[in-house]
């Protein structure tokens, strides 16, 4: 732990750069992270590179293996389902706090995002719109720590898994369920909105598990 507290200043930008590359999918799961190459790219010695990689390992983004060095950590199918379980708890709590605080502008923003669904048939766009819609619902909760936990969980899943979940869900079901959740929010019925959100996420989890079984990922 002390090593983490005394990182050299040059380790921070390397840490942020590698983390962003992992979260964006630029660095794929299982991809090797060669310290000499990273050091050359950043114009530094291997010392701050190793410090950055150790931080990323602590944060769950990097895995060190004996005789293989560091690689981008791969998320297992079982972990995907575990994280989706955690998602239920965090997001339902965020929505519970958010509904009483929602202004007309919050609802209008969520409705505008839903309208965008019908304007673009791209799977990647659906995935992005899904994230934006859920963010719009939770932001009025006023709990920055809770919102950060939700964002961190989404980041742990990574772009590949988010696309897999979007593919699993399809188009019509999530759009209708999003509309129903939003209608409950607009009516100020937090209990109904939470119930619908819980069903929405749990259904997606079941369908994701079924797809992974069909692809022999589980």
Automatic annotation (TrEMBL):
Descriptive protein name: GntR family transcriptional regulator
Entry's transmembrane regions: none
HTH gntR-type domain mapped to chain residues: 8-75
Keyword tags: DNA-binding, Plasmid, Transcription, Transcription regulation
Domain of life: Bacteria
InterPro entries: GntR_C, TF_FadR/GntR_C, Tscrpt_reg_HTH_GntR, WH-like_DNA-bd_sf, WH_DNA-bd_sf
Coiled-coil stretches: none
Pfam families per the UniProt record, alphabetical: FCD (PF07729), GntR (PF00392)
Source organism phylogeny: Bacteria, Pseudomonadati, Pseudomonadota, Alphaproteobacteria, Rhodobacterales
Keyword Ion transport: no
Keyword Transcription: yes
PROSITE patterns for the chain: HTH_GNTR
